[in-house]
Amino acid sequence: MRSPLKKWFWMITFLAVGAIVFQIGFSLQHQGVMDHKIKNRLASEKSPYLLQHQHNPVDWYPWGEEAFQKAKQEHKPVFLSIGYSTCHWCHVMAHESFEDKAVAQLMNETFINIKVDREERPDIDHLYMLVCQAVTGHGGWPLTVVLTPDKKPFFVGTYFPKQSRSGRIGMLELIPHIKGIWEQKNDQALESAQQIIEHIKKISEEKPGTGLGQHIYTQAYQGLARQFDSVYGGFGNEPKFPTPHQLFFLLRYAHRTGNKDALAMVEKTLLAMRRGGIYDQIGFGFHRYSTDRQWLVPHFEKMLYDQALLAIAYIEVYQITKNPLFRETAEEIFVYVLRDLKATEGGFYSAEDADSEGEEGKFYLWTMEEVKTILTPPEAELYFKIYQFEMEGNHQAEASGERPGTNIPHLKNSFFELAKEHNLTEEGLKNQLEIIRKKLFKVREMRIHPSKDDKILTDWNGLMIAALAKGAQAFQNQEYLKAAKEASHFILKRLLRPDGSLLHRFRSDHAAISGNLDDYAFLVWGLIEIFESDFKPEFLQAALEINRYMLNHFWDQDQGGLYFTSDLNDILFFRKKEIYDGAIPSGNAIAMLNLFRLAHLTGQEKLAERAVQIELAFSKTVTAQPLAYTQFLVGSEFSAASPLEVVVVANPSEKNSVKIVEALQTNFYPYLVSILKPSDQSHEVEQLIPFIANYQQLNGLATIYVCKDFACRLPMTKIEDLKKTIDDLKQNFKKED
Q1: Which residues in 486-643 belong to E strands, given as ranges?
Q2: How many CB atoms lie within 10 A of CB 403?
Q3: In a domain, 255, yes or no
Q4: What is the pLDDT of residue 258?
Q5: In this structure, is residue 362 part of a structural domain?
């Protein structure tokens, strides 16, 4: 039984600690840093990004007519702030300004304030980002736009500090300045807004061309070769972004022309990224981008789309080279995604933040002293040498904003070279490093994790479904196919409406926001990859139905191509067509390739005609600057190479048919589509693919039909004959243009 003295001691201690906590909380509230008793209108939203701002003293509105009606009634401009939950500089601006009572008071007096999650509303973000780039010459997030009450922009920028510094105006000066313009020069502000809109419409007009000549592929290759960093891989100088669509193009160009330099550029880039700090050497997965030329210091957020697209790049290079490191990297990406981003419902979460405990990258950084407490002395010594640790830190902490003395694990050489340096076998070194990695990972898991953006987006899930299905094919891994199917079933069940339209976002058991072009195009891509993994007709059927809805509601009847938004959506100031390949490829580029593939899979020539119309619609723009549209070139080149249709008629479980399918799936054949017609129950497949109706087995054996340009070779039953036929037919032109 506790003594009275101890009882009083604990009671006094409890009260003292409580008083301290109260004083700290009161002080922070008084400074405008936090006030969790106050909630604004964002408290009822689902977006993690909007919910991050629910306690701001800024009187935020979500995007909607309520805010704009309020602006009209009070004759106030609208302050529109666009960002996303894992955006580092969005956090900085929020802490400096949106959580500050002085700034908030000015904002509330001057504006109607609207917060938008760019990942929830890419349609809004795309338009106003185009304005920002046109007016200022650059873009980025947070995106700051001041609008008239009818949604027209008259001021635009990105990040603004609280106080003016380094030539950048601060919020405390900017807001009174804009207020003065609005109240004293209102006519000029309105006229400026209208001029901006007219300019944006003009530069966004797509004038159809006559198609892409074969020279455009060589022109794009030469442009990439000029930008290639022969020392560190990648393209250009710092900062360096993963650009998987450029790598996809180079792999196909190398395959078609036999250009070894194109393949070497991809290999060097992917090896350098895998060894660099942009790759999480302990927990796997890629960070967003590298702030330096060497791929060492990343911005530490992890995005679902980067994992998907980079996994595909590593898978395809492995199919070509059979280098096991490329396979291991793709598999490690999937380990990370399935461990940390997979929702219990079956879909995949969007991202993980760069920051934890208010510091970017803190979760991922190590001091040598920390590592020494976890590993044995020999293990620590080996790890420090292999992963380039230094006592003072292996990156410029002051420049990158990190703590001094911290290290980012990264590799200088290949495991083969490293093993040779340490008188070990490559396998022996890898085994030792895996034991060490698991120890460090276990301790790291006990740290405070970066926040997770747990919304599920249809478009980004489509990309991950495609990646997992391609992994299932290349590595013959049924677990990947299972995960891809679970995600697709989730999307089709929870985000596909009875009228055939898609919703964009799912969170907290709630699906909302009309789907955009990327949702349709990326999901169709994923469904096609699933179909070519195990040939179940339900996935091809779903791809065709979603593709049909997309063509009915996104197609430009006058100029061709696909708008980013449906004809059933509200229009801001005009409907835009996206073609630029940024962090993710454009919906038009993916849709074009989907249409070509579906046409060859089903024999529906009308689908190929639509794909050609997309190519014509944007060919003038693409020809003028091909490096900005490499995913578009991937789709165009697929058709230019006259793809093959390979039909296997067999019992799916029969040994030879399994080997034939494996040969098709594990090698890099970018210019063919594959179909398996079950010999026992083929009617479902034939309904979707009528042209295979008369294909039969020869002598009860698994039989292969290879067709190109509406002509078929004689049926064959040997894998060797299949490979030779593909090699003979795979290219229209083998020499470089």
Answers
A1: 503-507, 510-514
A2: 14
A3: yes
A4: 93
A5: no
637-673 burial code (b ≥16 CB/10 A, e <16): bbbbbebbbbbbbbebeeebbeebbebbbeebbbbbb
- Please name the helix (run of DSSP H) or strand (run of DSSP E) that holds residue 112, with its range, or none: strand 112-117
Quickly list H helices, 162-300.
Answer: 171-184, 186-204, 215-227, 244-257, 260-275
pLDDT for residue 15:
39
Q: What number of H helices and E strands is found in the chain?
A: 28, 19
Please tell me the least confidently modeled range out of 14-18, 92-96, 409-413. 14-18
**Is 561 in contact with 554 (CB distance < 8 Å)?**
no
Do 663 and 587 belong together in one domain? no
Residue with tokens 């339900």: 538
Whether residue 66 is predicted with pLDDT greater than 70 in this model: the reply is yes
**Range in 187-201, 444-458, 588-602 with the lowest mean pLDDT:** 187-201
Owning domain of residue 670: 644-729
Q: How far apart are CA 323 and CA 272, in angstroms?
A: 14
Answer whether residue 29 shows pLDDT above 70: no
Average pLDDT value for the chain: 91
> Is residue 16's pLDDT more than 70?
no
Stretch 246-253: mean pLDDT: 98
Of 731, 580, 717, nearest to 657 by C-alpha is: 717
With beta carbons less than 8 A apart as the criterion, state whether 256 and 637 touch: yes
- 338 and 430 inside one domain: no
For residue 149, the domain's CATH number is 3.40.30.10
Task: Give me the number of domains the chain comprises.
Answer: 5
User: Do 183 and 271 have their domain in common?
Assistant: no
Would you say residue 209 lies in a domain? no
DSSP structural state of residue 628: G
Proportion of the chain above pLDDT 90, given as a percent: 80
Q: Quick check: 553 and 561 in contact, CB under 8 A?
A: no
- Of 143, 170, 204, which residue constitutes the final position of a domain? 204
Tokens 């410029």, residue?
396
Distance of alpha carbon 499 from the chain centroid: 28
* DSSP secondary structure letters along 387-410: TT--TT-SS-HHHHTPPTT-B---
- The pLDDT of residue 397 is 54
The answer, yes or no, to whether residue 27 has pLDDT greater than 90, is no
Give 19's pLDDT tier (boundaries 50, 70, 90). Answer: very low
In the listed set 640, 658, 686, which residue is the last one of a domain according to the structure? 640
Q: Is residue 651 part of a domain?
A: yes
CATH of the domain at 338: 1.50.10.10
Q: Are residues 227 and 314 part of one domain?
A: yes
Shared domain for 633 and 708, answered yes or no, is no
Q: Indicate yes or no: pTM above 0.90.
A: yes
Let me know whether 255 and 161 are in one domain.
no
Per-residue model confidence as pLDDT tens digits over 630-682: 999 999 999 999 899 999 999 888 888 899 999 999 999 999 999 999 987 66
Same domain, 140 and 278: no
Q: Are residues 253 and 278 in the same domain?
A: yes
Helix (H, G, I), strand (E, B) or coil at 293: coil
Q: Exposed, middle or buried: residue 378 (CB in 10 Å: 0-12, 13-18, 19+)?
A: exposed
Q: Are 140 and 158 a contacting pair, CB within 8 Å?
A: yes
